[in-house]
Amino acid sequence: MAREAVVVGAGPNGLVGAITLARAGWRVRVIEAEDEPGGGVRTEALTLPGFAHDVCSAVHPMALASIALAGLEVDWVQPDAPLAHPLDGGRAMVVERSVDATAASFGEDGAAYQSLMTRIVEGHASITDAVLSPRRIPRPSAALVDYGVVGVRSATSLARAKFETQGVQALMGGLAAHSVLPLDAPLTAGVGLLLGLLAHAVGWPIARGGSQAIAGALVAELEAAGGEVQTGTRVRSLDELGDPDAIVLDLTPAQVLAVAGSELPARYRRALTRYRYGPGVCKVDWALDGPIPWSAPEVSRAVTVHVGGTLEEITAAEADPHAGRHAARPFVLLVQATVADPTRAPEGKHTGWAYCHVPSGSTEDRSGAIEAQVERFAPGFRDRILARNVLTAAAVEARDPNRVGGDIGGGVIDWRQLLARPTLSEWPWVTPRRGLYLCSSATPPGGGVHGMCGWHAAHAVLRRQR
Fold it and tell me: pLDDT of 29-44, one tens digit each?
């Protein structure tokens, strides 16, 4: 008789874990609290009819780098350029798919950029394998050594040591800001380098029609393997799940304690209680009457735009949320999906998606500060707004309790939680309670749409059952 597994949570990690077990011959049921599966990869009409907005994740370089999502039936759309970073004075830094083409546009810093990126891009497979499978002994390569030596540094030290121009320094700071750490913290250079090398190696694509297409493709694969998804059902206790051979929770520690705390040993409960969440986000979506009117026209070639000015400005803006402050001039991560995928808006119209980091649990609407930053580099932007939808950090958590305090990354990834995520263990996906496993972004390798947390958890299940 086939073994049975129940997966709680239908985000990418939960769905990948379910698919892996179903393909191994298990009977698998996924239970999702929301009416639609997807977790961080959902798309809704948040503003006006006909405008499709990604609720959380929008751009997916990690998906193309992940073995867990390889071959997924998604129509990936690659923008003309992966990334743009506008600067004052109508200038912009643009990352092209080619390292050489990018370096050629960086002037006096071109040779330094080429020297930094060429070998790690050529050896990107060994780097992504080490990052996405952190408990395996990595394949040795010169690229991985180069990446490791530089990646342990802070983003500010790397940017200032390697580059002379304000523009390239700012670009590196913007890449590292995805870490949601202060930019003078160790490891932030590694985050920036990883995203930069992926821009060259696999691109920064979006899913045609919206990120919900990723969830749809994963559900289709699960059903083809014999699994099922049950939506609109919130699990409040393990007692509700019967007695399957394995329970896999796509939940972060706070929700694990709420659902399973009474069945976990006291020492493990205390370890989960010490787990730390990072700053939240305030997110705004716009329905626009036309494209964003960037002062630097080349910014319109990219779907992803980092809006924040100089390295010094970005560093100050990213330090504020960790100190409990709202940045006066926040660093804004912006996506203009319709420049590459016009199916997301009525003909001639556009969408905008943006967020900035804020103190955990913030209830402050930061759309005014976000729009002021965009207006700074795109005069006339506000005149194109037809409607907006704002989610404060508190509202982000209310929509998805996994995003504690509005933290969309599943918890801080610094030295401590890189090694102990969520606890210090050789197999962190396995809990002390027999048959109970974890697969959320609070387990290695952490946040991002890659499904590898679920992949590792499912293989832990199979290993334990053997």
Answer: 999 999 999 999 999 9
